[in-house]
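Renewal narrative, Specific Aim 1. Our central claim is that a sequence can be written position by position from structural information alone. The example that follows is taken directly from our test logs and has not been curated for this report. It begins with the structure tokens describing the chain, in the order in which they were read.
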């Protein structure tokens, strides 16, 4: 994915809290193009409502307690239903 190529690490393990699966580890996205991100739902909403394939966005994220920024060119997500 463009995010992985830019150095953003996804969750690498899971835990359960009150029978709910929670992904943990990896980097935490805190903003996309200065839009605050609080949850994975915020990322999904941004991608669905604001983003288009080919668009370049700036992603701000926490990596090992350090804030980093990368620029990513978005690509069309492959269909999960093919």
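The sequence written for that structure reads:
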């Amino acid at each position: 994915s463009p995010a992985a190529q830019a150095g953003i690490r996804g969750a690498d393990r899971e835990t359960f809290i009150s029978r709910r699966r929670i992904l943990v580890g990896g980097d935490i996205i805190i903003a996309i193009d200065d839009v605050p991100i609080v949850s994975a739902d915020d990322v999904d909403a941004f991608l669905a409502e604001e983003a288009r394939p080919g668009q370049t966005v700036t992603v701000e994220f926490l990596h090992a307690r350090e804030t980093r920024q990368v620029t990513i060119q978005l690509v069309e997500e492959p269909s999960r239903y093919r």
